[in-house]
Amino acid sequence: xxAEPDAAWDSALTxxxxxxxxxxxxxxxxxxxxxxDVPSALAAALPAAGWTPPSxxxxxxxxxxxxxxxxxxxxxxxTERLARTRTGVGEALAAARTVLATKAPAPGIYLDLEG
Length: 115
Description:
Layout: H1 3-30, H2 38-45, H3 65-102
Helix pairs in contact: 1-3
């Protein structure tokens, strides 16, 4: 087996690990925080959305199997945490909308005496 597929896979896994590390750092920083600007804060912390695997990687070399399994586990955990964060933000937004919808409009504060 040549070292070329190993190097290509190593590079692809390194890129994924870096993206995942950025996501995990954001999650640690914002865990339980009442961040009102979650989408833009997350977007600023992470690389461009989406990842396209390099073409022609071929099968994962056996030597990288454990690394790939560990990366998959971390990715699954981060995805679950992001889903919980998204749900929490959605619930907070729904609660805010409910409060705003039940609040009576404020009365006018100006009185037109001339007109």
